[in-house]
């Protein structure tokens, strides 16, 4: 592969960033809540940049804002939960996307086999440990080695063109 601009990343103006967000918003993503039990209590955040990475070993990846308050707590946890949200959990996704509140207040959850919080109503749960972290731009990319998976009935919550949606 040939690289142009030899390692220099072009700067993008704010108008171009808005257009970029509009364009990439045409890509439909699922919505997950990443959760952990930390020394300071439960923590979690909504994430739409998540995907399967490898089958051998079983790895997934997700991106989190490097300066995110919840992420700063979750990234040091021994075990993290990844909760694939159902179409009925839009309100929960919005709560977990909010900063500075007790996101678990009134939320049903159980403890996963390795200790991570697993949110009730999610259509799938994964649990594992962060095996690698890298920073790119304003986000950290986490690689998670998965130890536990479970699927449940339901339809996924998706994110499309700047808003939550349901597959129909």
Topology:
Layout: H1 14-24, E1 29-30, E2 32-38, E3 41-47, E4 50-54, E5 59-65, H2 69-74, E6 80-84, H3 90-96, E7 109-111, E8 117-119, E9 124-136, E10 139-151, E11 157-160, E12 163-166
Antiparallel strand pairs: 1-11, 2-3, 2-6, 4-5, 5-10, 6-9, 7-8, 9-10, 11-12
How would you describe the overall organization of this protein?
The chain has 168 residues and is mostly beta strands. Helices cover 14% and strands 43% of the residues. The protein is built from 3 helices and 12 strands; from the N terminus they run H-E-E-E-E-E-H-E-H-E-E-E-E-E-E. The strands form 3 sheets. Strands 3-2-6-9-10-5-4 form a 7-stranded antiparallel β-sheet. A 3-stranded antiparallel β-sheet has the order 1-11-12, with no helix packed on it. Strands 7-8 form a two-stranded antiparallel ribbon. Strand 9 (124-136) and strand 10 (139-151) form a beta hairpin. The radius of gyration is 17 Å and the shape is globular.
By CATH's scheme, which homologous superfamily applies? Electron Transport, Fmn-binding Protein, Chain A
How would you characterize the largest beta sheet? 7 strands, antiparallel
What is the H/E order?
HEEEEEHEHEEEEEE
* Amino- and carboxy-terminal Cα gap: 40 Å
Mean pLDDT level: 91
List keywords for this structure.
mainly beta, Pnp Oxidase, Chain A, 3-stranded antiparallel β-sheet, 43% strand, disordered N terminus
């Amino acid at each position: 592969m040939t690289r142009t601009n030899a390692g220099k990343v072009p700067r993008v103006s704010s108008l171009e960033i808005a257009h970029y967000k509009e364009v990439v918003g045409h890509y439909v993503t699922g919505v997950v809540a990443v959760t952990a039990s930390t020394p300071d209590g439960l923590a979690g955040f909504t994430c739409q940049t998540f995907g399967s990475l490898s089958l051998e070993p079983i790895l997934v990846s997700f991106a989190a804002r490097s300066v995110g308050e919840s992420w700063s707590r979750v990234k040091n946890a021994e075990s993290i939960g990844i909760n694939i949200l159902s179409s009925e959990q839009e309100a929960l996704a919005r709560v977990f996307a909010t900063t500075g509140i007790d996101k678990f207040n009134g939320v049903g959850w159980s403890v996963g086999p390795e200790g991570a919080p697993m949110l009730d109503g999610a259509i799938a749960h994964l649990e594992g440990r962060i095996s690698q972290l890298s920073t790119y731009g304003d986000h950290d990319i986490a690689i998670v080695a998965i130890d536990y998976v479970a699927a449940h009935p339901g339809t996924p919550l998706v994110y499309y063109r700047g808003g939550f949606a349901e597959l129909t």
